Amino acid sequence: MNVNLDDYKYYYNRELSWLLFDERVLDEARDKTNPLMERLKFLSITASNLDEFFMIRVASLRDMVNAGYNKPDIAGMTPQMQLDALNEATHKLVDKQYTTLLRSLMPLMEQEGIHLVLRHEDLNKKQKEYVDDYFMKNVYPVLTPMAVDSSRPFPLIRNRSLNIGALVSKKAKEGKKSNNVEKEFATVQVPAVLPRIIRLPCEEGDSVILLEEIIERNMGKLFANYDIICAYPFRIMRNADLTIEEDEAADLLKEIERQLKKRQWGEVIRLEVADDIDKKLMKVLLKELNCREEAVYRIQGPLDLTFLMKLYGLEGYDELRDPDFDPQPVEDLTPDKDIFEAIRNKDILLHHPYETFRPIVEFIRQAAKDPDVLAIKQTLYRVSGHSPIVAALAQAAENGKQVTVLVELKARFDEENNIIWAKMLEKAGCHVIYGLVGLKTHSKITLVVRREEEGIRRYVHLGTGNYNDSTAKLYTDIGLLTCSEPIGEDATAVFNMLSGYSEPLNWNRLSVAPLWLKDRFLTLIGRETKNATAGKNSRIIAKVNSLCDKDIIMALYEASMAGVKIDLIVRGICCLKTGIPGVSDNITVRSVVGRFLEHSRIFYFENAGQPELYCGSADWMPRNLERRVEILFPIEEPDLKDKVYHILDVMLRDTLKARVMDEEGSYLRIDKRGKELLGCQAEFCREAMAKTEDRIKKVNSIENKRVFTPETQVEE
Predict the structure, then answer these.
(1) How far apart are the C-alpha atoms of 574 and 589, rounded to whole Å?
(2) DSSP for 147-177, written as a single string
(3) 370/492 same-domain check
(4) Domain holding 661: CATH number?
(5) pLDDT at site 674
(6) Over 90: is that where the pLDDT of 152 sits?
(7) Peptide bond into 323 cis (omega under 30)
(8) Are residues 494 and 525 in the same domain?
(9) Under DSSP, is residue 415 helix (H, G, I), strand (E, B) or coil?
(10) Model confidence pTM above 0.85
């Protein structure tokens, strides 16, 4: 076939594709087979996702339009066309969110004895007394009511803050009546430092109300000399996409600190208001916030649904949640064993969160204490609030180790957290690098250099996820611990590249972006195309978070046209189209949304019957392949290759949580008739627990078979 793969018709727009992902998350909130509290959690996640989408992606498109940039994307859509399409699609999504809450979830909550009071007018007498007392004791001292007049300008409304706007009028003097009431604007920010959900006295079950309703009920106490004409909640989203002139910044850390402050002043790109808001109050907000009418979202229900995550954590409703799952011990590691000895015995693969992240923390801790360890080098992208890994790195430096840490300051929305860690590590004596100019370092790699009898040995951890002990319980990721000499040499080359300017002439096992990785992927896909053309065995399975790189998609189309069977597991954005006759009819795309966030990147290439498996930190996106430091690493030991292939195989057999893209770009649930009912995440949990049980039985069996003589009893 003579096909022009540059044609726009072969690609989906990435932003609209992302919205379809958020809709799949919303679908979990609407899924009646999920426990109620889990459904609330998924609905909260859709709201949080949408916030970030607006602050970065929509804001970026708005910047393009403001700058007069009209170049179309791979789907042929200009920035303005994308904004128009997103405006329509996001309004529909938000309507669906609130329909889900008000019509589906709240009636179910009522049945379970959880009463969410949406209007303070609906409180009974006892509850009104309670919230008024709560307001005076806990809320009133924290609030800062702000009136706007000639001497008090319109205040800064902070990004993502929830506020109550009001129209007020000065009270007439006693005995006088004013016929011409002058309305003034006033506002108060709902303080994020206080709990947004307040439990109310209730005879049966639990009754809760939102903090903004308590404040609205007591607005008169905040503006004592005014009559409150009306009061309504509102919330804004600002452009939070930082513009950092790295080439001109003398100190990147100070430049990012300066830019972070600007986030609070960014252009308003979304304004949420109550659907019945007073027209005059609305007019004031639009004018003072310089907000477009199309950016207004009139909400029928409580603003900012992220509060549902707090409701999810309400005590006493465990039966309405998924059963707790504790990450299981790693088969080849025992808590009391020397981790370096275990790695010398064989490469160790970890599958989080089904297997515990603890060995990675222990790897750094043991290295920090081990007198034979000479150096530790690590990249940090996002870490937890009280990171044990950062604490171990600081301890290592204090113990005299050579510690080099690349802290990526440009990790979006983690900039402030990373600045704090970077300063702490520097104080402890670590050599801290703040990333590379023009690039984000997104790779996940740790190198430990150890002096042993045979000489210097390098131990390496490579992963698909961040060094974050908190998210490791929520995200699915792959990690590899190895002391392979070729990988150790490559790891040294990576850190020399990050800390200096040396680029290796070649790599042994690793492929690194932005210079080599994209070509490596195109070569691997191209090899499958050639094998299929030559009649050899060919197949590609790829699991990524996003697929929107045009060169990769074109290569996949060419492979499909040559007859390569391609199975793609794509969590979020996918710009590739399936089912195009003669072009992509050998390609399937599925997305899995479940209790854990799918985050691992895995790549399988059949290679004419000699399969190759890789894992890595990069998605198939231009930013990952061209503007970030990323690492792809091979899985080489046969038993580990089997383990990784099993992960892909189970995911491809998922019939409960997978959705498959059709020819129209919609994601449909799998027809379960005649098929095994299988949810891949539940299956991985079951397998991990079964392995732990088998090991316990094995240990108990060995203990039971031991014969105790008087001599051995004395030894014991």
Answers:
(1) 8
(2) E-BTTBPPPP--TT-EEEEEEEEEPPPTT--
(3) yes
(4) 3.30.870.10
(5) 86
(6) no
(7) no
(8) no
(9) helix
(10) yes
CA nearest 61: which of 71, 76, 51?
A: 71
Residue 4 belongs to some domain of the structure = no
pLDDT tens for each residue of 34-45: 999 999 999 999
Find the domain containing 58 and state its range.
11-118
Helix, strand, coil shares of the chain, percent, nearest 5, are 40, 20, 35
**In-domain check, residue 197:** yes
Residues 595 and 487 in one domain: no
Q: How many CB atoms lie within 10 A of CB 600?
A: 25
Asked if the structure places residue 330 within a domain, the reply is no
pLDDT digits over 281-340, tens only? Answer: 999 999 999 998 889 999 999 999 999 999 998 888 999 999 999 999 998 888 778 999
The whole-number pLDDT of residue 264 equals 64
Number of domains, the chain: 5
Structure tokens given for 150: 């000639």
User: For residues 375 and 704, which has the higher predicted lDDT (pLDDT)?
Assistant: 375
Average pLDDT for residues 198-226, to the nearest whole number? 91
Ramachandran sector of residue 674 (left: φ over 0; alpha: ψ -120 to 50; beta: rest): left
Give the residue ranges of DSSP H helices in 31-174. 36-53, 59-66, 79-99, 106-111, 125-134
Residue 140: the pLDDT is 95
Helix (H) or strand (E) holding 588, with range, is: strand 587-592
Here the CATH number for the domain that contains residue 66 is 1.20.58.310
Nearest-angstrom CA–CA distance, 522 and 531: 14
Q: Catalytic site residues?
A: 442
* Confidence (pLDDT) at 259: 64
Question: What's the residue count for the chain?
Answer: 716
Please check whether residue 314 lies inside any domain of the structure: no
In this structure, are 477 and 345 located in the same domain?
A: yes
